[in-house]
Automatic annotation (TrEMBL):
Phylogenetic classification of the source organism: Bacteria, Bacillati, Actinomycetota, Actinomycetes, Bifidobacteriales
Organism: Bifidobacterium imperatoris
Keywords assigned by UniProt, alphabetized: ATP-binding, Isoprene biosynthesis, Kinase, Nucleotide-binding, Transferase
Domain GHMP kinase C-terminal as annotated: residue spans: 234-289
Annotated protein name in UniProt: 4-diphosphocytidyl-2-C-methyl-D-erythritol kinase
Residues that hold ATP according to the record: P123, V124, G125, A126, G127, L128, G129, G130, G131, S132, A133
Family, per entry: Belongs to the GHMP kinase family. IspE subfamily.
Alphabetized InterPro entries for the sequence: GHMP_kinase_C_dom, GHMP_kinase_C_sf, GHMP_kinase_N_dom, IspE, Ribosomal_Su5_D2-typ_SF, Ribsml_uS5_D2-typ_fold_subgr
One Pfam family here: GHMP_kinases_N
Primary role: Catalyzes the phosphorylation of the position 2 hydroxy group of 4-diphosphocytidyl-2C-methyl-D-erythritol.
All copies of domain GHMP kinase N-terminal, residue ranges: 98-173
Reaction equation(s) it catalyzes: 4-CDP-2-C-methyl-D-erythritol + ATP = 4-CDP-2-C-methyl-D-erythritol 2-phosphate + ADP + H(+)
Pathway field: Isoprenoid biosynthesis; isopentenyl diphosphate biosynthesis via DXP pathway; isopentenyl diphosphate from 1-deoxy-D-xylulose 5-phosphate: step 3/6
Gene Ontology MF annotations: kinase activity
Active-site residue list: K29, D165
Amino acid sequence: MMTIATAPIVERLHTSQLADTVRVDCPAKTNLTLEVGPTHEEWGGRHALDTIYCAVGVYDTVTATAKAPGTGFSLELEGAHLGDLASSSSDMRRNHAVLALFAMAQEAGREPDVALTITKRIPVGAGLGGGSADAAAAILAINQLWNLNWPMERLRTIAATLGADMPFCLTGGLAHGTGFGEQIEDILDDSPLARELQAQGFTGEVLIGAYQSQLSTPEVYHTFDVVGAGSGDRNHLQAAAISLHPRSGQAIEAALQAGARHAFVSGSGPSVVAFVPDSTTAQRVIDTWVMHDAADRIIRAQAPVTPIIGVTQ
Ligand SMILES: C[C@@](CO)(OP(=O)(O)O)[C@H](O)COP(=O)(O)OP(=O)(O)OC[C@H]1O[C@@H](n2ccc(N)nc2=O)[C@H](O)[C@@H]1O
Ligand SMILES: Nc1ncnc2c1ncn2[C@@H]1O[C@H](COP(=O)(O)OP(=O)(O)O)[C@@H](O)[C@H]1O
């Protein structure tokens, strides 16, 4: 497998131009496989992972706009599906995108004088890496806004200090993740593994069954430590997630019966991802999920995809 840090798509950008506002559309992620190993003290008690990440085309949009020196940062959140971020106790200084801004400012030796806006479309606390996507989007935006032009390996090192999923979210596509999830090897489009995944039906049209309720990632890992992986599960966290949120299991069963080639819990859940071979099957899965009330929100997307960076003068 070759290691190349692929660049996200950059629209309307010439390297000599300085931007006033940078907009990044950053996709959700799922895990096509997720093998969970032992915990490691040196990783803050996190588990060793072997995973194939896949970026899924439901995007949050993060914009970063330069503010006057000394005025500090601001954050605005928009969208109909803000989950626990809408709660009055949600601290915007702990928002993953703001933590990413702080990390970039510290590394650059600058003040974080930036206005961030996040339009959320990725379900929150859903195993779809929405917080990681927003942090990755903020890192990509600041790299452009401040004309830092740091290479992807440096951005990934910063991202790894913030969360296991974040280095992957900087580039999206398909990638092999090891360590605690932060060690990324891109899977190139024309590689044998990418072709194998495509032949197995792990690319193309995908349905996401999402829920009002959230699952806490640490709680799912703790439950996994007790119940272990289900036999034959490609996602070792699936049995733990279903034990905490049984509707996810019902959605998987219903999707497979309706003809999905694969249906599984996304990462730590509770969302369910179903890969379908064609739009007729997609409609059958949607109909069965609606009929059985198997999901609260159904999203249709493509996979794999990459982040998109746009610049406004
Ligand atoms: C499970 C996965 C699968 O991609 O993501 P989600 O499906 O939740 O998005 C990841 O492993 C989550 O990634 P992320 O949410 O970035 O993890 P972090 O912020 O680094 O860690 C949050 C918590 O998850 C647990 N954790 C995370 C990663 C890991 N390799 N082992 C762990 O045990 C730990 O309890 C840790 O305190
Ligand atoms: N920008 C953000 N978007 C989503 N969640 C965020 C963000 N910043 C902080 N969080 C918090 O991170 C937690 C996990 O959310 P998320 O990343 O969407 O889920 P998951 O880890 O299951 O993929 C939530 O409790 C949420 O409050």
